[in-house]
Amino acid sequence: MSMQRRDFLKTIGAASTVAAIPGCATMSGASGKVVVVGGGYGGATAAKYIRMWSDGRIDVTVVESNPEFISCPISNLVLGGSKQIGDVTVSYDNLVKRHGVKLVRDTATAVDPDKRTVKLASGQELAYDRLILSPGVDFMWDKVPSLNNVDAQAKILHSWKAGAQTVALRNQLVAMPDGGVCAISIPVAPYRCPPGPYERACQIAWYFKRAKPKSKVLILDGNGDVTSKGPLFKKAWAEEYKGIVEYRANHVLTDVDVATRTAKFEVQDSVKADVLNVIPPQRASAIARSAGVVTANDRWCDVDFLTFESVKVKNIHVLGDSIQIATGMPKSAHMANQHAKVCAAAVVALLAGQAPNPTPVLTNTCYSFITDKDVVHVCSVHQYDKEKKTVLPVAGSGGVSPAMNELEGHFAFSWANNIWADTLA
Ligand SMILES: Cc1cc2nc3c(=O)[nH]c(=O)nc-3n(C[C@H](O)[C@H](O)[C@H](O)COP(=O)(O)OP(=O)(O)OC[C@H]3O[C@@H](n4cnc5c(N)ncnc54)[C@H](O)[C@@H]3O)c2cc1C
Q1: Atom 23 of ligand 1 has which residue's CA nearest to it?
Q2: What is the pLDDT of residue 85?
Q3: Do residues 88 and 75 lie in contact, with contact meaning Cβ atoms separated by under 8 Å?
Q4: What CA–CA distance (Å, rounded) separates 130 from 307?
Q5: Which of the listed residues 37, 72, 324 should we mutate to test ligand 1's pocket, taking the one with most ligand atoms within 8 A of CB?
Q6: Which of 37, 202, 364, 399 is the most exposed place for a label (fewest CB within 10 A)?
Q7: Prediction pTM value
């Protein structure tokens, strides 16, 4: 590859949400069967791009438990009340009609890597040449023992998978009397969406400031400090939400008392709240365990960053929140989208008997809503390092907003509409 062409590809990768792939054209020699488990940010994107880049020659089946795609990004605004759950819900129709993806509404329950089959709850079995797992996270309920049953989980909500839980938490906030306290428990990193809990605190505070001004939002963080955009969030809490938001670090949750909505901690005193939102510790979803691809700390899946193939089990690729992240790589929708594109290009190349792109570039931008309009962002560029065989942040790339502002609010809504279209339209 000539120097100019390499630079050109680097530039495309850095400037857009399309990761650099060899030639960016379709690979007509590719054929085979790909099964994707999980039609979220990683899985749906991989499915669509494999269909496009193989010119429709690779057969792609997505197995997804839910009837519709419900986005976690923007779902904190549903808690604040400036958006409805319908605003973050997208149909799977275009994936099927425009791209010829086969969609099976079912839950994958087991993988047999030797036979290369996936078993579904309905009893159906799907054969694959390449399997892509993007199942997101499961909650480690054993770390919050009293929540390890469905009744308790219906009272003390996580709302960390957008949908019914988001609406239920909004209802709890609406029912809470003015003067009440909403406490949010944040797990020790790594967890899905580093800035998400702090954005959530802002959105709940935005609602309280207008509808219940005597109420408080208490952030009980398992981490030693705010894990993302710290100075920007702290400024918002000190100024925009003065007297409403209180931040407390080093609150590692050990359990809750469900009846009294009390959170208990390793070291700190217990806290009783009127609305208690517990974001539990997380790990790769169950199907990743069944497939035998969980390799890091009994939680996450190590992958080869050139292909996102598991380092342990051949022909199984893992994307999104389930993977063991590289340095500086967040567990985000934007990043899952980028994993999906690098993986899709690699799978198309491999099924055409070609080598995958040796220098993929990935980008990330995470917007956080402070009010219903004012937003801050953090962004970064990550490139494969041949010697270290991992993806590393590009020196001098990325950055954060100087302060919250309305213009970035427009960018953030555009980002959401664009990624929904990129994933599903
Ligand atoms: C409140 C909140 C706000 C966020 N805001 C942002 C943001 O602003 N920007 C950003 O970039 N990221 C944000 N994120 C993070 C983002 O949502 C995740 O990083 C992203 O969804 C990860 O994509 P994924 O494909 O790994 O998982 P998901 O998108 O969760 O997709 C997993 C899918 O797999 C399905 N599934 C799981 N197991 C099975 C099975 N066995 N069989 C069939 N289907 C299965 C699930 O139903 C689900 O649809 C936010 C997250 C939260 C919780």
Answers
A1: 41
A2: 98
A3: yes
A4: 11
A5: 72
A6: 399
A7: 0.94
